[in-house]
């Protein structure tokens, strides 16, 4: 992922670090501040059932989503790692230092005014990011499977926008608002959301959290 960020033209003053466990002493090892958490998890029948129910519940009850949340749909198979990264960085773009010719910076500027569906279409045509995704996939990293391989693992991003914790998943129709958060408690709040994913599938072991932390 570090290579990936470098290739996309992001200065290394933020870095992705592994979250080794959900206990307070392990979370205390993660450098602060943390501005995003990526969760890698398995798509199982239990999860798909929950996802359908959650979508119907939110459609019925409604939820508050700030218009400043940057959200995009996922239309490219297995690009969830790439889309997770874009979600993490797009919603923290005021904190990032981009190189002048950064392909990601240009993508974000071009797509800010687009709908989530238009952003997905734009990514399909946006060679610079797709090629970077594919080249990092071929380096044999677990984070980025090649585009056509069938994978049942999925990435989502958790971010703080305007004091609310949002789950951003390109397979869902909209961001999910998980309630209030702040810069100090964001990592703990995001990990609570990750724990819910794990509790829904207690037999599963394939969960992995990565924090975007100040270097």
UniProtKB/TrEMBL annotation:
It comes from the Eukaryota. PROSITE patterns: UCH_1, UCH_DOMAIN. The record marks 74 as: Transition state stabilizer. The record marks 169 as: Important for enzyme activity. GO terms for cellular component: cytoplasm. Residues 1-214 form the UCH catalytic domain. It holds the Pfam family Peptidase_C12. Its EC number is 3.4.19.12. One of its GO terms (biological process) is protein deubiquitination. Belongs to the peptidase C12 family. This is Ubiquitin carboxyl-terminal hydrolase. It comes from Tachuris rubrigastra.
């Amino acid at each position: 992922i570090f290579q990936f960020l470098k290739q996309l033209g992001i200065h290394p003053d933020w870095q992705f670090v592994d979250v080794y466990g959900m206990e307070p002493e392990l979370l205390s090892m993660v450098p602060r501040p943390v501005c995003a958490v990526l969760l890698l998890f398995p798509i199982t029948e239990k999860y798909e059932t929950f996802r359908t129910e959650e979508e119907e519940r939110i459609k019925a009850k409604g939820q508050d989503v700030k218009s400043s949340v940057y959200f995009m749909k996922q239309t490219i198979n297995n690009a969830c790692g790439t889309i997770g990264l874009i979600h993490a960085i797009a919603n923290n773009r005021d904190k990032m230092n981009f190189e002048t010719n950064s392909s990601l910076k240009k993508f974000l500027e071009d797509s800010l005014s687009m709908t989530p569906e238009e952003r997905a279409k734009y990514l399909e045509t946006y060679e610079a990011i797709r090629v970077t995704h594919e080249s990092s996939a071929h380096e044999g990293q677990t984070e980025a499977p090649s585009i056509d391989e069938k994978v049942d693992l999925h990435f989502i991003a958790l971010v703080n926008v305007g004091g609310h914790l949002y789950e951003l998943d390109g397979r869902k129709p909209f961001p999910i608002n998980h309630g209030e958060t702040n810069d100090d408690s964001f990592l703990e709040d995001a990990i609570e959301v990750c724990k819910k994913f794990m509790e829904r599938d207690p037999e599963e072991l394939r969960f992995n959290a990565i924090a975007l932390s100040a270097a």
